[in-house]
Specification:
This protein is of the alpha/beta class. Helix content is 29%, strand content 26%. The structure holds zinc ion.
Length: 265
C-alpha cells in the first residue's frame, strides 16, 4: 500500500501546488502553497490520520478544488474508509473545503461552529478571491465542549482556546503527533481572541502532552521547542518586555497582537 512507502511528492496542477509527506506510522501531511504565492507568505497544512476504522482529516483549506487532491489520495490509498473531518478553528483558510465533505461527519468545538455560522458568509465575501472552487459555507455537524475521544482509534479532539476562543486540537495518541491548528505559529503566535491568559494556559497544557511532533496550521512540522518559544512571547507581552518584537521578523503580527489586546508599544 502506498502509505507504507516513504512518501514525498510535490506536484503542480494548474494553480494548486501541493506537497504530500508521510508523518510517523499513520499520518500524512498535505502542505498547500497557494496562500504563500498570493502574498500571505504562509504554507497551510491539512493533516490526515489513517486509523483502524476511519480516516481523520484535520482542516479543509480553501475549498473543494484543494480538497479534491486529499480526496483523490484517500480514494487511491485508503478506499472504502469512512472520512471524518475536523475543523481546528473557524478561519476561512481552514474550513472552506468542508463543502466537499458535507455528507461526512465534521467535528469542531461548539464555539467554532457558532463562529462559522456567525462569520462564515462574511469572510467568504471578504476573501473570495482566494477560494478554490465553488465554496459553500458548511458548519460542523458534530460538536463538543471539552473533548471527544475515538477510543478505538487513539485519536482525541480537545478544546484549546488560544488563537480563537473556539480553537481545538487533535492528538494522535499512537504516533504522538499534535495538530495544533493556528495556536502554534512561527515565529510568534497570532492573537485573534483577546484572552492571552487562556492562550498561555493552552500552550502550557500542550507541553504536558506525550508528543514528539507538533503540526501547526501553517509552516513546518515542529516540536515542543516552538510551543516554548510561543509561550515566551506571551510571557514577554504580559511583563512588557517586548522591544525585540519591533524587529522586522515579528513586527507586523506583533503590532496586530498589541492592537487586539488593547496594548500600545
Ligand atoms: Zn490560518
Amino acid at each position: 500500500m502506498l502509505l507504507k512507502l516513504k512518501l514525498y511528492i510535490i506536484f503542480k496542477i494548474g494553480e494548486i501546488k501541493l506537497e504530500i509527506k508521510k508523518v510517523g506510522n499513520r499520518g500524512v501531511l498535505f502542505k498547500f502553497f497557494y496562500l504563500q504565492d498570493t502574498g500571505f507568505g504562509v504554507t497551510t497544512n491539512v493533516y490526515l490520520i489513517n486509523t483502524k476504522n476511519y480516516v481523520f482529516v484535520c482542516d479543509t483549506f480553501l475549498g473543494p478544488d484543494s480538497m479534491k487532491e486529499v480526496k483523490n489520495y484517500i480514494d487511491i490509498n485508503l478506499p472504502n474508509k469512512i472520512i471524518i473531518i475536523f475543523n481546528s478553528h473557524y478561519d476561512w483558510d481552514h474550513i472552506w473545503g468542508n463543502c466537499i465533505f458535507k455528507e461526512n461527519i465534521i467535528i469542531s468545538h461548539k464555539l467554532c461552529r457558532n463562529n462559522i455560522i456567525r462569520a462564515g458568509e462574511k469572510e467568504l465575501e471578504v476573501y473570495s478571491e482566494y477560494k478554490r472552487g465553488d465554496v459553500e459555507i458548511i458548519p460542523p455537524n458534530l460538536t463538543f465542549d471539552n473533548k471527544i475521544s475515538f477510543e478505538e482509534e487513539g485519536v482525541e479532539f480537545f478544546h484549546s482556546p488560544g488563537h480563537t476562543n473556539g480553537s481545538a486540537s487533535c492528538i494522535d495518541l499512537v504516533d504522538k503527533v499534535l495538530f495544533a491548528g493556528d495556536n502554534v505559529e512561527y515565529p510568534i503566535p497570532y492573537f485573534q481572541a483577546d484572552n492571552i491568559y487562556d492562550y498561555k494556559d493552552t500552550l502550557e497544557k500542550y507541553l504536558n502532552l506525550d508528543i514528539k511532533k507538533v503540526i501547526p496550521g501553517h509552516g513546518e512540522i515542529s516540536n515542543k521547542s516552538l510551543i516554548k518559544e510561543n509561550i515566551t512571547y506571551i510571557n514577554n507581552i504580559i511583563t512588557g518586555d517586548i522591544e525585540e518584537y519591533l524587529d522586522f521578523k515579528y513586527r507586523k503580527v506583533h503590532l496586530e497582537n498589541l492592537n487586539r489586546i488593547g496594548k500600545s508599544i
